[in-house]
Specification:
heterodimer; A: mainly alpha; 2 strands; globular; B: 24 helices; 3 strands
Chain lengths: 531, 526
């Protein structure tokens, strides 16, 4: 079942290679839609009553002496991210329909190859398969930025690649160390994630600290956390629209997913011990990036920095190590994917018309593009965290998780190393987010109407085969509508996700707590049974 | 003596082919002269078949020949394909009406040297004593000096050859000196006896300083062959000066021979004593420093180059550094025979060597396949827009460069993976981190190499780039790109074979693979 989900995009990629370039977009769209439908079937086949265990597992031996097997399987958290990936690819394909005019075939080929890699990351049950796919996402993304990006693309793509590649090599060393520990216990290699997690959790505190550091090298760069975020604004700004969408919506989640799936359960003691440090970095990132957003004149760069700020909340929720925080964080991953992805699409639509991203040159779009304005304001509200839309749920839960972390609340023992102060500082990030996003809306959407001179825009227009209407075309509305519907639905019905991911999240938290403090864990398990 | 010859049939085949080529190369008949490449390929193929079927020699690492010799033949065949006709000037002049003069025909000679050098590499693997080791190593190197000089008419090639020759001679002197000391310290030339003597020394108060000094000098001498820092200075100039197919040859054959000899030499001092204790500490430190320096210097220099052959030259230094990590790892792991294939440093080095040989070849051959106004491509600018004009080459270059970078899921990743696991197994975390950071640094220039054909639109310089006439090169380059992808499926078999190849000879256990009775070969040795 899951293998088919990988084979569909693989076949699509082959078809794109074999057919002439003018068919590439349509093949990519059909293929990714089939993959989306298949992902829905996977969702349907998944038994949510038992959401904490790996389901739909399949495994093939690959490199026997290395204990490497090609194993796939999902629990409900990875399933959510698989769904997100499968949804965003067809929308990105549709969104790039007219934007790409050169090397069209290669563009859609890289996009579909990227889909294969991302799906494999979330479905991998073997550590090395995870790592292979994790690293391989760099190649298609590199080419998407380097070939189809804007002016500064060469530099952006190389910095993006080197930054993440360097980090993840250190991660590989950490993962190999765990595999070696397992080998030295049992005498044979295995890269089964469940087995290795158990092995890793039995390491001493100092070993765990080193492994955590190694893992964070790769994952923190990918998220990105505060001091290692510098690649992101550049990559986001220079990437083509579809690239930015995928980068923000899915690739950044590889980092948080890695932290959730590997760093937390593998180094529970160390994670518990260093969670305040990680949370501090998150808060610095939240506030710093928000302040940077405030002064941006480049709209794409603004949204890029807002990603740094938002992902700070996401990791903050993980560092809270309680059910509220961690499930809020996973909720946040999906929400950020939807609303930031949509914002990048909106900006891409304006860019395609006026070939500028500067707020100095654009303004008052509401008068000319009412439909676009509706969607943009809608997604800005979702991103700000307006109650009733999806962004609010994730933001509230992560901050609430950080607040209650380590605080006894209504007599229930709550766990975690953070406290109200972390929540208070993170909360300022929410206020700043409202400021910069409304400021952005005020300038770009409302305010004085002005667009670049026709002479400047006209120069670019020669390259365009398709004339775009002044406001959004039907195709563009079709791209944005599903995202908008999901934003409302998840805002009103967050339980659709929260209840489904509760069991695996609790499992991870229980693992962390058991390892880091024995007596507290005992209480928690009793508590868990009480529910 | 005769049973010693019995294991050398592949080498003997190559020598017979060399003699045939001497004759056909000077023939008046044009077709016969041009058939030289086919004859050489035939010889290599027969040598391959024989190498697979040969019994194991009675050496310190008896399995080594069974792995390296067929691998050398396979890479040799690809190199031969890629060679095409390196020096066609003479043939063109003949076509233009010049009278044939056997003294001026170099094509046959060139193929002879090519095969002789390969035979030297294969002989290294069967070496049982220091003299043999030295002769085999020199047999690998000497023809390469001439190949560098005669493969190209440019003056740079002559300069490169002279540099290469003098530095090579100096290096040979250094390791010969080391061999002499080793002989002085142990009283024997036979590697098996040397090991026994060193074991005895280790058991009674430690290995003598003379032996360690001898091994140190030998290692430093061999550093030249594998282009390790501080004996790397010739690399960039020589690689750049030589014709590209010859460079591809230099980047693999002498390096492989160097590593084979290094393995045999280090095996004399591997896991001395009953408990399989670690190596003499001095050697471990020496190799550790060599590895770290070689990787770092190689990558640091490669990053600043704009000429592709220089980049590949410096990166080949860095690759030697990675392989030295495997050497360090092999020294520390105890009881390598019982080890799993993926933690054995020597096995990882062999695996890496094959992978590196195949993929590096592809990168060089793409350069050799393309030309601008009859000249080889030199700089990154020449590759701009390659995808639009010659998409196949851009793909081959990208696959080979990404594999050399170690990007999953290409084969280069697994090669690095095994080196890393073996080093982690040996507890060399710092070295692994250094290697990891170096791989990341290498990504800088390999990415440039992989991406330049795509990222930039073709400029005026690029529009003059055209394919060179040799079809064989194209085929060989394609094969090596396929290898970068398809070998992933054979990883398990290859690493297991590598592990079998490097098990230490145990004097008391008669190996059931060997068809030669142990006692006769021991008797023959004395």
């Amino acid at each position: 079942m899951l293998l088919t989900l990988l084979l569909i995009p693989t076949l699509t990629a082959l078809a794109i290679m074999l057919r002439p370039a003018r068919h590439a977009a349509i093949i990519a769209f059909i293929g990714s839609m089939v993959a989306l439908v298949w992902a829905c079937l996977v969702w349907n086949a998944f038994d949510f009553a038992d959401s904490a265990s790996i389901q739909l597992a399949a495994s093939w031996t690959w490199i026997e002496p290395m204990g490497l097997s090609f194993s796939l399987g999902v629990d409900s958290v990875s399933l959510m991210l698989v769904m997100l990936t499968a949804l965003l690819i067809p929308l990105s394909v549709l969104g790039s329909w007219t934007a790409i005019t050169e090397r069209v075939r290669e563009f859609f080929l890289w996009l579909i190859i990227l889909e294969i890699a991302m799906l494999a990351v979330f479905m991998a049950r073997d550590l090395l398969v995870f790592y292979l796919a994790f690293e391989f996402t760099l190649v298609p993304m590199f080419f998407l930025i380097a070939v189809y990006g804007s002016t500064n693309r060469a530099r952006a793509s190389i910095i993006f690649f080197l930054y993440t590649f360097t980090g993840s090599i250190i991660t590989l060393v950490g993962l190999l160390y765990i595999a070696w520990l397992q080998w030295s216990h049992t005498g044979h290699w295995t890269f089964d994630i469940a087995t290795l997690t158990a092995t890793a959790a039995s390491m001493t505190a100092s070993q765990q600290a080193w492994v955590l550091l190694a893992l964070c090298c790769g994952f923190a760069v990918k998220v990105p956390l505060f001091p290692v975020h510098t690649w992101l604004p550049l990559a986001h700004t220079e990437a083509p629209t579809a690239g930015s969408v995928i980068l923000a919506a899915v690739l950044l989640k590889l980092g948080t997913y890695g932290l959730y799936r590997f760093a937390m359960p593998m180094c529970p003691v160390a994670f518990n011990e260093y969670a305040p440090l990680i949370a501090t970095l998150c808060i610095i990132g939240i506030i710093y990036a928000a302040l940077v957003c405030w002064v941006q004149r480049d709209v794409k760069r603004l949204i890029a920095y807002s990603s740094v700020s938002h992902l700070g909340f996401c990791v903050l929720g993980l560092a809270a190590i309680n059910t509220t925080g961690v499930s809020g964080s996973i909720m946040y991953m999906i929400n950020h994917g939807l609303s930031t992805g949509a914002l990048f699409l909106c900006i891409g639509m304006v860019y395609e018309r006026y070939h500028t991203r500067s707020m100095d040159e654009l303004g008052g779009m509401a008068r000319r593009m009412p439909v676009w304005t509706f969607f943009t304001v809608f997604f800005v509200m979702s991103s700000v965290g307006l109650p009733g839309l999806n962004g609010f749920v994730g933001e509230f839960l992560t901050i609430f998780g950080a607040f209650t972390s380590g605080q006894p609340l209504q007599g229930l023992p709550t766990t975690g190393p953070l406290g109200p102060w972390y929540a208070a500082f993170a909360g300022t990030g929410m206020i700043l987010a409202a400021i910069y996003l409304l400021y952005f809306t005020g300038h770009l959407v409302f305010g004085q109407y002005h667009v670049p001179d026709a002479s400047r825009g006209g120069g670019h227009d020669h390259a365009h085969h398709h004339r775009l209407p002044r406001d959004l075309s039907l195709r563009e509305v079709v791209v944005l509508t599903p995202l908008a519907i999901l934003c409302v639905w998840l805002g009103v019905q967050p339980d659709a996700i929260l209840s489904r991911i509760e069991a695996p999240v609790n499992q991870v938290i229980a693992a962390v707590e058991t390892a880091s403090s024995q007596p507290l864990a005992a209480i928690m398990t009793e508590d868990g049974e009480g529910h | 003596m005769l049973d010693r010859v019995a294991i050398l049939w592949p080498e003997i085949t190559l020598l017979i082919t060399v003699m045939l080529l001497m004759l056909t190369g000077t023939s008046k008949d044009k077709d016969l002269r041009r058939a030289g490449s086919w004859i050489a390929a035939m010889g290599l193929f027969i040598a391959f078949v024989l190498a697979v079927r040969m019994p194991e020699p009675d050496t310190l690492l008896p399995g080594l020949a069974g792995f390296v010799r067929p691998a050398a033949c396979v890479v040799g065949l690809l190199l031969l394909l890629g060679l095409g006709s390196v020096d066609t000037r003479y043939e063109i002049e003949i076509d233009g009406g010049r009278r044939f003069d056997p003294l001026d025909a170099t094509q046959g000679e060139f193929l002879c040297f090519f095969l002789l050098s390969l035979a030297g590499l294969m002989l290294c693997t069967t070496a049982s004593d220091l003299i043999w080791l030295f002769l085999a190593l020199e047999m690998t190197s000497l023809p390469t000096y001439i190949m560098v000089a005669s493969g190209r008419s440019k003056i740079a090639a002559q300069e490169a050859a002279v540099k290469y020759f003098f530095l090579g001679a100096a290096a040979a002197a250094i390791f010969l000196y080391g061999f002499a000391m080793l002989y002085g310290a142990t009283g024997s030339l036979h590697l098996i006896d040397i090991r026994a003597a060193l074991e005895a020394q280790a058991a009674s108060g430690g290995v003598s300083a003379l032996a360690i000094l001898g091994l140190t000098l030998a290692i430093i001498g061999i550093s030249f062959k594998i282009a390790a820092v501080p004996m790397h200075f010739y690399t960039a100039d020589v690689y750049e000066g030589a014709a590209t197919p010859v460079t591809a040859f230099l980047a693999f054959v002498p390096k492989a021979a160097g590593f084979v000899v290094l393995m045999l030499l280090l095996s004399t001092a591997l896991h001395l004593g009953e408990g399989g204790q670690a190596w003499p500490e001095a050697l471990r430190v020496l190799l550790w420093v060599l590895a770290a320096l070689t990787m770092t210097v190689g990558n640091a220099l490669a990053m600043w180059q704009n000429r592709i052959k220089r980049v590949l030259a410096y990166s080949s230094i860095a690759h030697s550094g990675y392989m030295l990590v495997g050497m360090v790892a092999a020294m520390e792991a105890s009881g390598s025979a019982a080890d799993s294939p993926t933690t054995n440093g020597f096995a990882a080095v062999l695996f890496y060597l094959v992978v590196y040989g195949l993929t590096n070849l592809g990168a060089f051959l793409v350069l050799a396949c393309l030309q601008r106004r009859g000249e080889e491509l030199e700089t990154f600018d020449d590759l701009e827009g390659l995808w639009d004009r010659h998409g196949g080459y851009a793909t081959i270059m990208a696959l080979c460069a990404l594999s050399l970078m170690g990007l999953p899921p290409l084969i280069g990743f697994f090669a690095k993976l095994f080196l890393f696991t073996s080093a982690i197994r040996a507890g060399e975390y710092t070295l692994v981190i250094i290697a990891g950071l170096n791989s990341a640094a290498a990504a800088w220039y390999y990415l440039r190499l992989a991406g330049v054909g795509w990222v930039k639109r073709p400029g005026t310089a690029a529009s003059e780039v055209e394919r060179s006439p040799s079809g064989g090169r194209r085929f060989a380059a394609g094969l090596s790109a396929i290898a970068a992808v398809a070998l992933v499926l054979m990883t398990a078999r290859l690493i297991t074979a590598g592990n079998d190849a490097v098990r230490l000879r145990t004097s008391d256990v008669v190996d059931h693979h060997a068809t030669l009775p142990d006692d006769t070969s021991t008797a023959a040795r004395h």
